[in-house]
């Protein structure tokens, strides 16, 4: 990770400035009687277990009234110790990082010295955020620091040579925001409202959109790398707090995402549409992960199935929906003197004067879920009305049907199928109402647990492969689709549903790879996903074998995918036809009260509604984007890729198992090649790249403890050793747990 050279050097001094800064750091270390500048110094600290004492001295020193020279010296020392993950953990534990934020927001009374102090503080924070010792530290720094960094943005957008400082400032914010997506999983509760408010995301969104709105007023145009960082920040703001974008005056935020989706860049078009999707999904900060198309966390798991152990532990603490021993309907049965002896009383219902075993409608619904409707009229609502006289039934009736199948030993599979389908339908209804975030999260979690358990218990049955991929995206989904389609019991209905979910997954992975990936071939891989999707959609629409919902969604997907890839850019007649067909499909799905892909449909509707207005509002930005050499080069790259389809197909196949390089949880962007690092030659002798790394977590430190038996594995602490021991090292090396 490199910093702009202009940020490393003052505007009015040469490289000797940093030599002078080193002297400041040495003076501070002598005053405190500590040494942290060489690998030998760090080893001595670890050997004597004096890390906590060293940090205590620095914390106490940071609270004094210090001249600017000593503050700069302390910042340089902080940079040194945070390069060692064990010492960094101690520094964050004692809140030494607060000193950096105090320096960023202090005013010395002299403009030049304030600038120098802030410059050193930015450099320190940039290095610190590039390698946190753990994600919880990142959460803490993001919550207490994002708003302070936001307030600095105006100071780096006025007259003068401010571009590199602005890039670093926004890059720091872009590094802090993504890891918050793991907050609920790590802390086992949603981001607290006071923590969300402390981020001041509406102010951040307003500041960033303001920079883009004033391109003509700035003394110098924004650089491409800075613009990209702004877009990435806005994407994550929409992910956590969509209202921060939607509440911007004149609808600037939503129109900006639509304008990006119309831009001359494939990557930016995907970024813009990802922003529209985030605006229409339930906010992560309130709802956690409740199943969403184009979820950035899909890039985490590679081909591994996500772990549901935390969900199981959490769900175990929730009260189950009560199963009444004698419900109202059962009492009616008893009053009429019929069927007094049911094996499970609440599974015997009463309708229109007649007793009704819940297993009758339950069996019909389970078969409907597995095999699909036998004609155009058969549906869940049709079954409900037939058996219960109403399309609305209560929770007791739902669970009575599930339990009625569980009472029959040969119907356990169908009971699990019905249970999952009920949970998903309740989840979709709750998401549409958006009234109770906790209920939505609990329904989602229970459905995920049931899908995982169903797949474990019924690995040769197609349904739970479908259940695993429904409403989710990720590399592992490609494998699940193939395995599900190969199951001997797969019905035509499930085939179509799994292929539909596979198309949604291709769309998700294509958009995410283009928007968030920093690997070597993001355009090739992301464009490849979307082009494969276009071919598959064309075949599906031509065959016309899918169900009503899947056919209509294929038409919608065809439209939006083409708008991203530009594959029909020169065929205006076809583009216009597909637009009109997409509009009709959206209307038909709404009339049918379909709950399928609500957020995707809403995002497409936003795009269609504002595609004329957005370019008028953001015309100067689109013109500027079109002039960037990076975007022109991207267009040439795409043209070259399309000229070699066979070679590209081979490349994608060879790279299928490559896990995507993603922007979370650490850096979140590729460093511009034009920016060269001069940092290492100027400050200290400790290079994180040369430090030994923990065998488990890969963090660098000179204080690692060796495995007592093999002497090869090294660990930060007992926790890292235990994790590695349990996940495979035990089989490689029989050794007692090390003491630290």
TrEMBL record:
GO molecular function: zinc ion binding
Gene3D superfamilies reported for this sequence: 6.10.140.2220
Zinc-finger found in the keyword field: yes
Domain MYND-type: 694-733
Protein keywords: Metal-binding, Zinc, Zinc-finger
Domain of life: Eukaryota
Protein name: MYND-type domain-containing protein
Organism: Sistotremastrum suecicum HHB10207 ss-3
